[in-house]
Amino acid sequence: MLRRDFLNFAAMTGLAVAAPRTARAAFQPYAGPFFVFVSARGGWDPTYFCDPKPKDPSKFNRLYDYDAATHKVGNLPYANIPVSGAALGLDAMADPYLMSAKDFFTAHGDQIRLINGINTETNNHDRGVKTTFSGRGDRDYPALAAMIAADRAPAHPLAFISSGGYANSGNLLPVTRLNSVSSFQKIASPNLVNVADPMGPTYHNPDTYQRILDAQAARTMDLSNGNDLPRIKTSANELYVARGNMDTLASVELPGALVDLPGNLGDLERMMQQTQLALAAFKAGLAVSANIELGGFDTHANHDINQVRQLAKLFHGIHFLLQEAEAQGLLGELIIFVGSDFGRGKGYNGPGAADGKDHWPVTSMMAISGDPGVIGGNTLIGASTVDDQLPMTVDPVTLETLDDPMMGVQIKWGEVHKAMRAFAGIGPDHPYSSKFPIIAEDLPLFG
To answer: Is 198 domain-assigned?
Structure first.
């Protein structure tokens, strides 16, 4: 696979590549596990998929009937909402790319560890996203995806890929971000006259272009060697390494074509393309973790259609991620964490069918592993109350849900992240735990 082919593919998906701070020697391909963090941006409604409530138009649910005894797959409860393109404002061509909660749990329930009743402690979007994906909303902590990548393979070219969501790296490593397609095409292929035609004419012949690259490298080295200011020296070194190590990307085996969906599914199409790129980088051994995002969950209006539609897209997008990982021999090494800014509720913001639900701090999250034994699939932890959609406490040892709110521990993102860090090998004695401490109870949420 030619470097030009990778850059063209990356440009189509909006990839912008950053490089590590220090020069890379030859490195061993990273073999896993691989971590994907999926953000349902805007604030999803857990009562519409994994934390169902009895039907009550004045409260949480005026859309579906719920029977706690039958509406579950294994140990995982689901909101019994059928989906179809016609019912969700799409055409019939969208149906193969939509998935109900029931179908999603049926297909992957043995791979899912579900945590309900998490107290996000905020109704603010920015703080909610930061808290969900870093563990603390009051500090600029690195995303857990960045922390894991920095711990496992900081020198790899695409160690942490972010296609949206919370991507603060905490200066632990650079981030490979998804950016504007057109601007990246120009940066990635500066010698092409027409970046849309990667095999087309160039501004300079190969020999002349190589002399330009050599002159750039020499000038960058002069800049680095001639400055003692750490910031300038570091920036010059980053630029030098970024230009000098791009050929390592040639090992990425790209898919034959990007996902191209029919109908009004552009956001899902982008999510699935992000998946293709992340898996290609994983398979090449160049990446450790990736952020993937699907937006549209901020449903202050038309909740019963828009929320269900976005959840149906999200489930199909995760299903696609698992299917593609299996096809590429990566499934057994894949670990997925799925979360959102916060929840929605606790009731509707109006009596009309087109009304919505506002921000609510009580939410849920899913952890999914290709190998069910890794994460402990078909597992439900936590709950929210039936009457008020408030978080219930759990026994700190058994994780059994307790009826007395004065007993046990309330699950917050601090508890979740402390457990996720330990699961990923970043325990209490790790330097990152000292640098970015989380004050929370120890709960065996991931075994």
So the answer is: no
Residue 274, helix vs strand vs coil:
helix
Work out whether strand 176-178 and strand 160-162 pair parallel, antiparallel, or are unpaired: parallel
Among 15-24, 133-142, 328-337, 432-441, the minimum mean pLDDT is found in 15-24
Nearest Cα to 38, choosing from 156, 164, 127? 164
How far is Cα 172 from Cα 153, in angstroms, rounded to an integer? 11
For residue 278, what is the domain's CATH number? 3.40.720.10
User: With contact defined as beta carbons under 8 Å apart, do 445 and 399 qualify?
Assistant: yes
Q: What is the mean pLDDT of residues 61-70?
A: 94
Q: Chain centroid to CA 333: how far?
A: 16
Tens-digit pLDDT profile for residues 254-275: 666 789 998 789 999 999 989 9
Alpha helices (H) along 249-354: 266-283, 303-327
Question: Among candidates 222, 215, 281, which has minimal Cα distance to 248?
Answer: 281
- Confidence (pTM): 0.86
pLDDT at 241 over 90: no
pLDDT at 211: 87
Tell me what pLDDT residue 264 has: 87
Q: Between the CA of residue 173 and those of 115, 349, 430, what are the distances in Å?
A: 30, 43, 17
And the tokens for 243?
């230009």
In a domain, 189, yes or no: no
Buried b (16+ CB within 10 A) or exposed e, 235-248: bbbbbbbbeebbeb
Structure token digits, residue 364: 């849920």
Query: What total number of domains does the chain contain?
Result: 1
Residue 134 belongs to a domain: yes
Number of helical H runs and strand E runs in the chain = 12, 15
Rounded to the nearest 5 percent, the helix, strand and coil shares of the chain are 35, 15, 45
In a domain, 401, yes or no: yes
The boundaries of the domain holding residue 52 are 16-178+255-435
**CB distance 322 to 370 below 8 Å:** yes
